[in-house]
Amino acid sequence: xxxxxxxxxxxxxxLRADVPPEAGFTLQVDGHFKNQxxxxxxxxxxxxxxxxxxxxxxIEIYDxxxxxxxxx
Length: 72
What we know:
Elements: E1 25-29, E2 32-37, H1 40-53, E3 59-63, E4 68-71
Antiparallel strand pairs: 1-2, 1-3, 3-4
């Protein structure tokens, strides 16, 4: 009897938390890239919400266009 074969669904590669994104604004939490946003205002809102819930976290906003980090 032939062995059963399975096929895996084709998916896009997983985003890595240690590689900077190429566009937009991204939250960087304790050195790892997390959520990505289209505007700085959206990123700031998410960062301040997260910082108010978890004040011990080190949160920055990474601007991919300028390749700069903005502390929160």
